[in-house]
Design goal:
By secondary structure, the protein is of the alpha/beta class. The protein contains 11 helices and 9 strands. It has helices at 16-26, 39-44, 58-61, 104-115, 132-149, 162-177, 201-204, 213-224, 241-244, 261-273, 297-311; strands spanning 7-11, 62-69, 72-79, 87-91, 118-123, 155-160, 184-188, 250-255, 278-283. The chain has a 9-stranded mixed β-sheet, sandwiched between helices. The longest helix has 18 residues, at 132-149. The mean pLDDT is 96. Pfam families: Abhydrolase_3. Residues 88-291 form the Alpha/beta hydrolase fold-3 domain.
Length: 312
């Protein structure tokens, strides 16, 4: 169950910069359609999605490796001094239907520079142009490849939103296989239930300018294809206590103006009940994937806590 040791409010009110950025972001075109009915024409009428290109300056800042896993591209950023003691496998968000955002690159930069880790970013195929199994194949192959040359206990799985779902699902698949496990699991505003079933989300929805319950449910159905979006395979919130008990130490970061805060609380409680070293950090007024707004106090605090987690 949730206790005062498993959940911590890190920021009682949003910083001035966070409030300003939220206002600016709310004036931009929507990332996803506001209504579920708009998702199908949105996906049907688009050109083939392309990942935001890596900034050219990264080649001077980092040692960059570009490689493939399961026939899909992966970019690894190492500190200039050489590979970090920890290697982070980071999955970007986007509802499984959108490619890498330009905002993900500064977040990756901040993690390499502030934490001294190596970060590998899979640029996975998205649905519906591809199928969800291709994303799983890439995740499995990328972890296996990194583990060939890096101690698995010093590999952290991380991701935001749908990418948090991918990181968690990978950890659960690895546990079922009984092979080497990652040392730690970090989740930034993870999407845990594709069906968005908890009615408590309705109270949060007016404060979340990015996400809508109906649109997310529609995305979940597209991602699951012929599968059941409510099954643990697609909604890891519903894995059994026995399955969850195999997970490594886990930390979750979610803003309180993020629809996913509700399931983050529920999932943290389930992890604690399963005996997992788990903790949730919350930020008042912070939007979905607030840690990607790297200049803010909230993002800096998140990365500081992530660094502490690595050193525990």
């Amino acid at each position: 169950m949730l206790t005062d040791t498993s959940i911590e409010l890190r920021s009682a009110k949003p910083s001035l910069l966070m409030r300003a950025v939220k206002w600016l972001m709310s004036k931009r075109p929507d990332v996803f359609p506001k209504e579920a009915a708009g998702l199908e024409p949105f996906l049907a009428g688009r050109p083939l999605p392309k990942d935001a290109p890596m900034p050219g300056a990264f080649r001077a800042k980092f040692h960059v490796e570009e490689w493939e896993a399961a026939g899909q591209k992966v970019v690894t950023l190492h500190p200039k001094s050489g590979p970090g003691a920890w290697h982070m496998l980071y999955f970007h968000g986007g509802g499984f239907v959108l490619p890498m955002f330009k905002e993900h690159w500064p977040l990756a930069q901040a993690m390499v520079e502030k934490l001294g880790v190596s970060v590998s970013l899979p640029l996975y195929e998205v649905v519906p142009e591809s199928v969800h199994t291709r994303q799983d194949e890439l995740a499995d192959a990328a972890f296996a490849k990194i583990a060939e040359t890096h101690d698995p206990s010093k590999i952290m799985l991380n991701g935001d939103s749908a990418g948090g779902h991918m990181a968690l699902s990978l950890a659960l698949r690895l546990a079922k296989k009984g092979g080497p496990m990652p040392g730690k699991l970090a989740l930034f505003a993870p999407w845990l239930d594709l069906t968005m079933a908890d009615p408590a989300m309705k109270a949060v929805e007016p404060h979340d300018f990015m996400l809508r319950i109906g649109t997310l449910r529609a995305c979940g159905r597209v991602f699951a294809g012929e599968g059941d979006p409510a099954s643990p395979q697609f909604s890891p919130l519903y894995y059994s206590q026995e399955d969850l008990a195999a997970l490594p130490p886990t930390r979750i970061w979610t803003g309180r103006h993020d629809l996913f805060i509700i399931d983050s609380r529920t999932f943290t409680g389930k992890l604690r009940d399963a005996g997992v070293d788990a903790k949730l950090y919350e930020y008042e007024g912070a939007p979905h994937v607030f840690m990607a707004i790297v200049p803010t106090r909230e993002s800096k605090d998140c990365l500081n806590l992530l660094g502490q987690f690595l050193n525990e």
